[in-house]
Amino acid sequence: MLSCDLPEDLVVEILSSLPVKFLMQFKDTRVSLLSNDTLEVSSNIDLSPFFLEEIDMLVIDGPCNGIFFLYGISSERYYGEEIVLWNPATRESKVVRIVDFRRCKPLQFEVYNLSTDSWRVIDGSVNQLYGIEFAMFPSYLNGFYHWMASEYPNITMSSRIRCFMISFDMSNEDFQETLLPPIIKDPFSTDEIAIINDSVSLIVEYFDVYIRWYDIWVMRETAVERTWTKKFKICLHPIFDKMLEFREDGLVLFQDSDGWLVVNDRKTQEVRNIAKYEISDLSHSIAVSYTETLVFLNEGNVIE
Fold first, then answer.
1. Which residue range is the domain that position 60 belongs to?
2. pTM for this structure?
3. Which residue ranges does the record assign to the F-box associated beta-propeller type domain (predicted)?
């Protein structure tokens, strides 16, 4: 009789080549074998059933290790907003907290543990005069989450002293600050942190009535310092309303003011429409590179 004992790395390689639906049949018997397997997946789904109450606005962040963060805002909920974790691969969602961010003073950071379904305050949280901005692009890379941040002279936050990048190390659970490059600022410029071609990058957007352009800076890290290098510039007509994603193949995805998703090839300068969606003044589009995970949200709800 042949032995059924196979090396673990071979088992993982075999399982990673199997369809997700097939693997899901065995989630109750060998969950440990599935925890690190990832496959490509795409889906269209109504996210509103994930929340306990009807929501008026939805903010999506991530993914981080295949899990999306959903933040639902409701005009009827005066005491806070719902935070939901969502795994598209397993179709699971889980409400992990209802919190009032508007009253979250002093500034406090907490880590959620999925296995124990509990929150823990991080010791030595950041300076109370810091303001941390919501990330408009995916900004997680190699165990670090990165945000744009500002320091203010007092708690009124009327005018900022400086801008910088703040990073959270998920392994050591501490924060690191990084100076930004010497960019030229004006009232019509915005800064965003993004991950481009597996590098932490800074996107500086400038615009006027005639043109919109983006300066892209890439961070290089050594054992002693972090430095920024300006890599390229993208110039577009102002009709291209919002940048959505930089692809590794050199394509940049935009959304124009009419709702078209537009691809710009930086090498050939070709611009072409690929799809159109209905948009409104309250709509918000994001584009992410998603790698599936079979991590299960303990006692989460499954949306068929």
1. 51-104
2. 0.70
3. 94-271
